[in-house]
Amino acid sequence: MSEFTQQSQTQPIGVFDSGVGGLTVLKHLIHSMPGEEFVYLGDTARVPYGNKSPETIRHYTRQCVNFLLSFDVKAIVIACNTASALALDLARDISPVPVIGMIHPAAVSAVEQSITKKIGIIGTRATIGSHAYEHEIGNVAESKGLNIEVYAKACPLFVPLAEEDFGQHPSAAMIAHEYLHEFLALGIDILVLGCTHYPLLKDLIGKTLPDISLLDCGETAAKELCNILQIEEQKQAGELPIVRLFTTDSVHAFSSIAERCIGFPLPDPIRISPETLEEQGLSGI
User: Fold this and answer.
1) pLDDT value at position 50?
2) Which of 89, 127, 252, 263 could form a disulfide with 123 if both were Cys (CB 3.0 to 4.6 A apart)?
3) 195 is catalytic
4) Which residue ranges make up each domain of the chain?
5) Are 78 and 90 in contact (CB under 8 A)?
6) Which helix (DSSP H) or strand (DSSP E) does residue 140 occupy?
């Protein structure tokens, strides 16, 4: 891991995701740290990451991290479970500032909150296939002397449903039931939403699993970063966040989705080309 360089309070926080799902993480970051400046990158030209190879995801992650570092950020949040599962080590190796992923904070919260000690996880194929959540929950449970049962399920169709704002469509209820009904018989009391798009479908998932608590990994990651910045005395005071949005392709209704996630209007995203990310990925910062 790179040794961290000294940062100042006024530097921005960088956030990236493969699309609009990371906006759910940005919402929690703004709520926890309303005085900060944020630079958000949605790699919408190459969404979804969840169906791509580990090598490709690591390649994209390197590019996104280098893009955010060009803004002299004081920390980076990988608001994507797939990239967190498969490329967090790479991101931390090339970054001179702290990098927060989605998985460890959620694993800690899930273990602490579960009463039945049976935890469910849903995510993309790549995240579930990596077994990153099982490993992290197992490590946390072992450190606490607990025995936890973990059940994981890939739900790849949830990402396009979230992207297209189809959570209220009748077909979405059928898809959710097909993916989730087996959890009802397993005795889980916590379901980790292991993809940052999935909180956009929280109502849909909650109706399918009405007696199971849904854990938003973006909320736990935001709390972890907030604690780090407080300890390092790098948290910016104030109540008026500054948000700059970038995407690698135009996205239908991106601004409306952003406003729905955040709760107030945001500026239209600036479009950058994937070639720009390629150049920065090669050159580094």
Assistant:
1) 86
2) 127
3) yes
4) 13-101+219-283, 103-217
5) no
6) helix 132-143
Of 64, 155, 195, 217, the catalytic one is 195
Using alpha carbons, select from 170, 169, 167, 164 the residue that is nearest to residue 205.
167
Written out in words, the top-level CATH class of the domain with range 13-101+219-283 is alpha beta
Q: Do domains 13-101+219-283 and 103-217 have the same CATH topology?
A: yes
186-233 pLDDT, tens digit per residue, is 999 999 999 999 999 999 999 999 999 999 999 999 999 999 999 988
Structure tokens, 218: 């973006």
Please identify which of the residues 80, 155, 217, 261 carries the catalytic annotation: 80
For residue 265, give the 3-state DSSP assignment.
coil
| Cα distance between residue 105 and residue 23, in whole Å | 18
Which CATH code is given to the segment(s) 103-217? 3.40.50.1860
Q: What is the pLDDT of residues 256-271, one digit of tens each?
A: 788 888 888 888 899 9
For 97, residues 6+ apart whose C-beta sits below 8 A from its C-beta are 4, 5, 7, 69, 73, 74, 75, 76
